[in-house]
Input
Amino acid sequence: MKNEELAPHIKDITRALKGKVSEEEIEQELQKWIQKYGVDINQAKRSIVNNLGGDPKELFTPSEKKIKEISGTERNLELKVRIVSINEKDIEVDGEPKKIHYGIFGDETGTIPFTIWETLPEPLDKGDTVHVINSYATTWNDKPQVNVGSRTRMRMLEGDEVPEFKRTSQRCDIRDVREGMSNLIITGRILNVEKKTVQTKNGEKDLYSGIMADETGKIQFSAWHDFGLKEDMVVEVNGGYVRSWRGIPQLSFDDNSTVDILDDGALPPKEQLEESGIMTISQLARRGGAVDAIIDAVMIDIKHGSGLIFRCPECNRVVQKSACRIHGKVDGEPDLRVKGILDDGTGALTVIITREETEEILEYGLDEAMELARDRMDHGVIKEALEDKLIAQPLRLKGNVTCDDYGLMLIASEVKEKKINMEEEARKLLDEVRV
Ligand SMILES: [Zn+2]
Output
């Protein structure tokens, strides 16, 4: 265990021993128990406290906090909360599929995003109240959130033990929507909506999800109640809350929210809103991601792993020298893509351009690309062709922007050259001069 990983445990022991033993001495003891005797960290902590004249029970006096008090650095965090929203997510850990849950906890002082990294001991549903013991807090984009890990215990409470958080609603442009917001008033036009049936603890539930937009941007939504939402409708949602996944915010609302249908003229027509929400990279960084965003930027670099690539037939990872990182030697399947860096003057992000769009940029398909590479006996020719077409080129791109530990990433669903119309620019200039 590294020193920084030991630090919180050293603090726990120091607290349990009421500061009678120095942190240096505790660290030495801890290293000894773990490295020399090979005992696990919790056993080591109990033994050390016991040997140095303390009460091991003191190690586990967790700090109960209200949501408003959470700073994002807590370990041993104890909470009594109500589940405001909960979603399921399939992720991959070391190549293994895993089901995790994320959502929003609430109490009378506020709301906070949470992630449950372990399989649920019992099913949880919106509205359940739970006692969470030994969770920990972290921050994401400067906002605290609660993590439920392998050492956390959760116990169901009676429904009325946790008062609901009542905040006066706040009106918000879609561009300004942030992770963890609740009681929002959002006006948007529904660009698309689809009905899904999902399995919850209390049986099957209908979910209406899609994308809505205003002049400032677009957002994914999930309605947990049939409000009769239809494509192209302009609605005002009162009582929505926001949770994001990999940086893409999602607006949820349910039967505690109200939805009013507004006059069609309240927002510009659908075609115009489809193109709304041009965002700068610094805006995206502040927000953490976006669905169907539009970015005007210049391609400044094309990375290794662009052009003609080969993917593992098992896991779809890009193979290097016919070897997959997980599956070893494989017969890779050919694909085309671009992995590059975009810069718009406010910041930079990684962009992935998928096969279809890459073929359009090259003006030929995968078969022809294979032939070209064979003729020249070099796969690199396709990457070079893409560099010629894209580097230093002003582009308009559209797609979902995610955000994780590696930063922002745009998965481009549309790439267009942003032609600067000289004639029009000149006319504009002249008009300005005449005025
Ligand atoms: Zn593989």
The chain has four domains: 3-60, 63-161, 170-274, 281-417. Residues 108 and 165 are 4 Å apart (CA to CA).
